Amino acid sequence: MPIEMSSRRSRITDEEINELISKLQSLLPESRRRSMSRASASKLLKETCSYIKSLHREVDDLSDRLSDLMSTMDSNSPQAEIIRSILRS
Amino acid sequence: MAISNAEGDPATGNEGGGERKRKRRADPPVAKWRTEGEQKTYSSKLIEAIRRVRRSSAAAATDHSRSRAVRAAADRALAVAGRGRTRWSRAILSGRKLKLWVRARACRRKPLGSITAASASHTTPKSKPPTLERKARVLGRLVPGCRKLPLLTLLEEASDYIAALEMQVRAMSAIAEILSAAGAATAEPM
């Protein structure tokens, strides 16, 4: 039974919790879902937050890499033409 | 800001503009983030944005400030790819600085958040166990523009946001691979 109770409000229903849980499970990639098959909504929420944070970190790292590699994107460099042709394909 | 239009893209399986106008879906389909077409469009736009960053950045710009500019460009391009259908994409496009300023003003008054939710019981009548509430708030802070959303709506946004982030990682990784391979390929042999 949930700990807090307000006389005016009703508790979140079991059905809503289940909906929540299946929704949360669908947000996680396969690799992270394996250990979460019987996890609570709370654990799944935590894992979801952790996953988003790791995606943000990846994007930060990739931004570092790309800003270093930026010099190879000069319009008149041979690399730029390679990049353009690959993106066009 | 001109928003790219990938209507009629066979990769997404959508028809032309007709389907978009007729079907007003509540949840934007998440599957589009996984299509090759979407990633290609994003990659082109991102490369252009990064080129602009490079042109506009001063010679004295630090590695860190350049990296942050790339990150900002990548996020903006991602939000544009969202086509304004989600809260998170609109929040990014409306500008982070503006949001921070608005939030700073709001904080000077009484902090709202769950207290407001409690008194406006007709809008959010359910009370959740405190752990769930706390974690939901953490999630709300991670998804742009989604701080005060009820949990189930927040999950819809998070679902789209996560799929978009995954595409962003795939696209940026692929570009980084191409660029470093291009750099290696054209390097002068010693």
UniProtKB/TrEMBL annotation, chain A:
<keyword id="KW-0804">Transcription</keyword>
<comment type="similarity">
    <text>Belongs to the bHLH protein family.</text>
</comment>
<keyword id="KW-0341">Growth regulation</keyword>
<dbReference type="GO" id="GO:0040008">
    <property type="term" value="P:regulation of growth"/>
</dbReference>
<dbReference type="InterPro" id="IPR036638">
    <property type="entry name" value="HLH_DNA-bd_sf"/>
</dbReference>
<dbReference type="GO" id="GO:0006355">
    <property type="term" value="P:regulation of DNA-templated transcription"/>
</dbReference>
<dbReference type="Pfam" id="PF23174">
    <property type="entry name" value="bHLH_ILI"/>
</dbReference>
<protein>
    <submittedName>
        <fullName>(wild Malaysian banana) hypothetical protein</fullName>
    </submittedName>
</protein>
<dbReference type="InterPro" id="IPR011598">
    <property type="entry name" value="bHLH_dom"/>
</dbReference>
<keyword id="KW-0805">Transcription regulation</keyword>
<dbReference type="InterPro" id="IPR044293">
    <property type="entry name" value="PRE"/>
</dbReference>
<dbReference type="GO" id="GO:0046983">
    <property type="term" value="F:protein dimerization activity"/>
</dbReference>
<feature type="domain" description="BHLH">
    <location>
        <begin position="1"/>
        <end position="55"/>
    </location>
</feature>
UniProtKB/TrEMBL annotation, chain B:
<dbReference type="GO" id="GO:0000976">
    <property type="term" value="F:transcription cis-regulatory region binding"/>
</dbReference>
<dbReference type="GO" id="GO:0046983">
    <property type="term" value="F:protein dimerization activity"/>
</dbReference>
<comment type="similarity">
    <text>Belongs to the bHLH protein family.</text>
</comment>
<dbReference type="GO" id="GO:0006355">
    <property type="term" value="P:regulation of DNA-templated transcription"/>
</dbReference>
<dbReference type="InterPro" id="IPR044660">
    <property type="entry name" value="IBH1-like"/>
</dbReference>
<keyword id="KW-0539">Nucleus</keyword>
<dbReference type="InterPro" id="IPR036638">
    <property type="entry name" value="HLH_DNA-bd_sf"/>
</dbReference>
<dbReference type="GO" id="GO:0005634">
    <property type="term" value="C:nucleus"/>
</dbReference>
<keyword id="KW-0804">Transcription</keyword>
<feature type="domain" description="IBH1-like N-terminal">
    <location>
        <begin position="39"/>
        <end position="94"/>
    </location>
</feature>
<dbReference type="Pfam" id="PF26576">
    <property type="entry name" value="IBH1_N"/>
</dbReference>
<feature type="region of interest" description="Disordered">
    <location>
        <begin position="1"/>
        <end position="41"/>
    </location>
</feature>
<dbReference type="InterPro" id="IPR059002">
    <property type="entry name" value="IBH1_N"/>
</dbReference>
<protein>
    <submittedName>
        <fullName>(wild Malaysian banana) hypothetical protein</fullName>
    </submittedName>
</protein>
<keyword id="KW-0805">Transcription regulation</keyword>
<dbReference type="InterPro" id="IPR044549">
    <property type="entry name" value="bHLH_AtIBH1-like"/>
</dbReference>
